[in-house]
Amino acid sequence: MGRIIYIIWALAVLAFVPRLTESAKILAIFPFTGPSQYICVQLYLKSLAARGHEITSISAFPQKTPLKNFRDITLKDEYKDHDEFIITAIEEMSATKLTQLRTLFDYSIMGSLPVLKNEEFQQLLRSDEHFDLIIIEVFCQDSLYALGEHFKAPMIGVSTFGADVIVDQLVDNVSPLAYVPAPSGTNLDVMNFWQRLDNLYTNTMELLYTHLVIIPEQQRQYEKYFPNATLRLTDVRRDFSLLLLNQHYSFSWPRPLVPNAIEVAGMHVENKPKKLPTDMEAFINASARGAIYFSLGSNVKSALLPKQKLQEIMNAFASLPVNVLWKFEKTDLAGKPKNVFINKWFPQSDVLAHPKVKLFVTHGGMHSLIEAVHHAKPIVGTPVFYDQYLNVEKAVYKGFGVGINFRNFTSTELRDAILEVLNNPKYTERAREISASFHDRPMNPLDTAIYWTEYVLRHKGAPQLRVASRHLNFLQRHSVDTMAVLFGIPLLLAIFLFYVVFQVLAALFSSNDNAHKKRKRD
Ligand SMILES: *[C@@H]1O[C@H](CO)[C@@H](O)[C@H](O)[C@H]1NC(C)=O
Ligand SMILES: *[C@@H]1O[C@H](CO)[C@@H](O)[C@H](O)[C@H]1NC(C)=O
Ligand SMILES: *[C@@H]1O[C@H](CO)[C@@H](O)[C@H](O)[C@H]1NC(C)=O
């Protein structure tokens, strides 16, 4: 009898244990122009598909071989000007804050319009297809944030460069300006007065530019392409269930995060490195003191660099006592030194995983920095634009890298920086320490991202994770109204009292005076 009661009790308990997530239909939109943003989520999306979820992925980078549970909507044609755009961006990034912001604006339009105009996407919008979840890249493509409401599905935002003041707004996260620097600047978390002033200025400019220029343009796109939407754009911008941030405190700094802003840096890295192609590994092996790997990432093409710059780089490499692997997008490079191996593509993470690869010469893109940290390799950083300056700055500050100026470095500078990191073991030691703290977490980053994604599915948008700030307007959110009462009323009272006392005293004195004069006359 007791046993039967126990079994009934156990079954009753089991009925309430949250069930495994059922397979869901997921729409993933990664409109950004560069392949590096897609690298960030490729493994994550594929893993979701492998777990039985049906993925519809909108990006410029379709799967080369068909994948189970994976459907691509390809944005190929819209991106033919990409290289040209990147070159302009590189030139302008050295200019003033305002020019940089304008470049950002062009980027933001490039992100949303090609999706909105895409015929297949338009069909999807008009179809009665149902989605359980929208996963969307967040970088000023606010009109696309309407998709959550359009498909009546919760939204997860992925920020490939981490949090900033604008991304914060999507889940009402906070970045205190006194110790959380803007990703587009060059300040670290410990700032002196002038750096804090600079951080305030950078963040204010970004906020103003976003609200005065980018959002009005996105508002026009929103009205044009989502004529049936009932929410205001300001509301869909706060309609996020979760934010996945490509950052981690181990290689940057600790910072406050709301419960639905999750750090997942490293989710794009395969846990087990693959074996390198034989020719690459043979070239690495042939170098007795280890080899180095040089790449400017997927956006900046080495092959498009000016001749002079290429010559400086080749001269530096030729003078090194080690072999160099160079990601170079053409098949021939006139005057290529014997110790250099060029290829238009390298399995970067697997190359960095190789024990004989000692150093990574990088542009400091977020993914490259994360892979260096993952594989405990020191860097020589030569940042080209946007968050790359700060990424390299972090590596220098944390002690696992040296930075040089991309615009004007000479072959001697490049060689000296490389030799400094190769010959001085302190850089590799720091890289190992930071890598150890990067890996020391309860769940690896990919599993973390999947766990929280399915958490949002299980809990129907997981409203329990969201802070209440989205219900407040600007004055309320910043306590301006309550502060006005708490400090304003006593202040008014004090002024009033002061006035009364002054009046009374004045009256007293003048009557005293009168009495005095009167007495004198008598
Ligand atoms: C808006 O609603 C109309 C009428 O219901 C429908 O025909 C149209 O396809 C909808 N447009 C979009 C973009 O959903
Ligand atoms: C490179 O060296 C490693 C270790 O000595 C060896 O296991 C590997 O087979 C070598 N690879 C090639 C392509 O020579
Ligand atoms: C390169 O430019 C930076 C700042 O613009 C300057 O500090 C540095 O000295 C320059 N280096 C060379 C080699 O000219």
TrEMBL record:
Keywords: Glycosyltransferase, Membrane, Signal, Transferase, Transmembrane, Transmembrane helix. Belongs to the UDP-glycosyltransferase family. This is UDP-glucuronosyltransferase. PANTHER family: EG:EG0003.4 PROTEIN-RELATED (PTHR48043). It is found in: Membrane. Its EC number is 2.4.1.17. Pfam families: UDPGT. SUPFAM superfamilies: UDP-Glycosyltransferase/glycogen phosphorylase. CDD domains: GT1_Gtf-like. Residues 1-23 form the signal peptide. It is a single-pass membrane protein. The gene is LOC105230268. Coiled coil: none annotated. The chain crosses the membrane at residues 483-509. It comes from Bactrocera dorsalis. It catalyses: glucuronate acceptor + UDP-alpha-D-glucuronate = acceptor beta-D-glucuronoside + UDP + H(+).
